[in-house]
Amino acid sequence: MDKPTDLVEYETMLLGQHRHLDRSAYILLSRIRVAGMMSIGQLSEAFGLDVSTLNRHTSALLRDGLAERIPDPEGGIARKFRLTEVGERYLDDERARNIRGLEKVLAGWTAEEVAEFAAYLRRFNTDVEGVGGRSWPRQDRVAREGGGAGV
């Protein structure tokens, strides 16, 4: 580990071990909540995943009652995924659980340290998104641009 990037790689690898197994449902539901209803093609483009992979993940969401597939309200051909009430509750519960865990971990940090850490994480993620050519809609950006599902 000679370079700072080696340290970043190692620490992000360690961070990944703390995530629970059903991360894909959490991420898909989060994206749909922030961006609004999405078709399988839009999800494929947003995540850079092939349709067959997304079909497996979205099938699990449908089976578990977390999302439903509806006709495009704007009259398009592709059907859209939207969160169900169960999906909304699941997402809210997961987010609350994640925040409680973060509050425990960050209990000894000052508010300024937490804000600085969040700013660095946002910058890091935004730069990763820029390299990959796919940005994640952020709550402030969605509100400013008038899109999404009203987070």
Low-confidence segments, given as residue ranges, are 142-151
User: Element order, helices and strands?
Assistant: HHHHEEHHH
Mean pLDDT: 86
Strand order of the largest sheet: 1-2
DSSP E strands, number:
2
Domain tally: 1
Q: How does the helix and strand content classify structurally? A: mainly alpha
Helix share, percent: 55-70%
Q: Which class in CATH terms?
A: Mainly Alpha
Q: Determine the CATH topology.
A: Arc Repressor Mutant, subunit A
Number of helices: 7
Write the layout of secondary structure elements.
Elements: H1 4-16, H2 23-35, H3 40-47, H4 51-63, E1 67-70, E2 80-83, H5 85-105, H6 111-132, H7 139-145
Antiparallel strand pairs: 1-2
Helix pairs in contact: 2-5, 3-4
Summarize this, please?
The chain is mainly alpha-helical and 151 residues long. The chain contains 7 helices and 2 strands. Helix 2 (23-35) crosses helix 5 and helix 3 (40-47) packs across helix 4 (51-63).
Give structural notes.
It contains seven helices and two strands, in the order ααααββααα. It has a two-stranded antiparallel sheet. The chain has helices at residues 4-16, 23-35, 40-47, 51-63, 85-105, 111-132, 139-145, and strands at 67-70, 80-83. α2 crosses α5 (85-105) and α3 crosses α4 (51-63). The N and C termini lie far apart (40 Å).
What characteristics describe this protein?
single chain, 151 residues, mainly alpha, Arc Repressor Mutant, subunit A, two-stranded antiparallel sheet, 7 helices
